Amino acid sequence: MSTSATTGAAAHGYHTARVIHLAAVAALGGFLFGFDTAVINGAVGAMRSDFGMSATLTGFVVASALLGCMVGAYAAGRLADRLGRIRVMVIASLLFMVSAIGSGLAFGPVDMVLWRVVGGFGVGAASVIAPAYIAEISPAEIRGRMGSLQQLAIVTGIFIALLSDFAIAGAAGGSNETLAFGLDAWRWMFIAEALPAIAYGVLAVTIPESPRFLIRVGQEKRAREVLSQVLIDGVDTRIREIKRTINREARSSFADLKKPGGGLLPIVWIGVALSVFQQFVGINVIFYYSSTLWQSVGFTESDALAQTVITSVTNIVVTIVAIALVDRIGRRRLLIIGSLGMTISLGALAWIFSQAPIIDNEPVLSDSAGLSALIAANAFVVFFGATWGPVVWVLLGEMFNNTIRGTALGLAAAAQWLANFAISMSFPKMAELGLWFAYGFYTTCALLSLLFVLRFVPETKGVELEDMV
Length: 469
Hints:
Layout: E1 3-4, E2 13-14, H1 16-38, H2 40-51, H3 55-83, H4 85-104, H5 109-137, H6 143-172, E3 178-180, E4 183-184, H7 185-191, H8 194-204, H9 211-216, H10 220-230, H11 235-247, H12 266-280, H13 283-296, H14 301-329, H15 331-354, E5 358-359, E6 362-363, H16 367-398, H17 405-433, H18 435-456
Antiparallel strand pairs: 1-2, 3-4, 5-6
Helix pairs in contact: 1-4, 1-5, 1-6, 1-8, 2-7, 2-13, 3-4, 3-5, 3-17, 4-5, 4-7, 4-8, 5-6, 5-16, 5-17, 6-7, 6-14, 6-16, 10-11, 12-16, 12-17, 12-18, 13-14, 14-15, 14-16, 15-16, 15-18, 17-18
């Protein structure tokens, strides 16, 4: 299957099926990213009980992986520039596998934190390498849709993790019940990740290296072969464009992200701020804590897990919608729509919880209030999943010029994981103050994200990577 592009400054025909194939394999890192970060949702209650952890320690164990994510994200950009994109994917797959088995066999909170951090290294690496590879392999005309595959893979990974949590807990009769080989069900929830981790590593070595990396290390012939698999015509033009940017490129370093007078370049600040806002609206509270959250307001464990699975399905559907829209509507407009919708839905959640009576230090929702909260929570997921979820990853993969892309993307992704850590770590304590307080904070951040996009975020739709300034 091939397509003739008719838009853009350097439009060429391209092999759509081949582009999708390469982008989909790279996006498997996103699948592991989603699986690894969400799998703890079904295990956190039983794990807390088994290890006798306080709310603060529980929050740290859940969030500890994000510290690894931050380090992995920052290091991955530099490693990818030295070792290549494919080798970093294989390294990430090994980290995922080790973390899955280690977490499932953990003796207590100390070594659980260690294994979670190891998995975090893999997640951080995958969060950088997948959007970078996809952006570098994709024609500009469909780069937004291909970049959105990363978010589709992430939300699919979240769905499969939550579905497997639900199935494993159901098979054992509860997450704290013994399932097989004397291991509790919650431990098998972690171990289940080993299979997709192995698949990711195996499939990663079947796709070619990024043409930009190949040209940079002097393998122009191989880069030409890779581009010929993607482009029907215009290979020579693309080679010249890549060489033009690489010829003026020194090896990327943190110093390249700074202005001559000091401080980060404005475009780097924009990338960092986008990453922080994506997390500060509280999306991962839904996917890390939703089962315990819904149980705390009166739902059974089974019902809470089922509702979490439904929410993750909703996330997948709206991400597919985003893929259809991102190259038509544009990145900036989608972010604006998302910020408006998130502000309204989060504000509704804050109001609902502020009106709930407190019994035994927990808010108790009436049937009508519970239904309203579920609708508002899923509306939030819809607006996030159709806009800020995929679009931020698309922008981070394409908004930086070739000179700084690897390092800048690594810094922005590291900032995202630091923000994710702060939100995940703080939620149990914020919830003790009141769920209305937590969701009020997320509402404020959603409103600020709207003002930020209106003032600072550029449109990158249809612009070749070589023409980014």
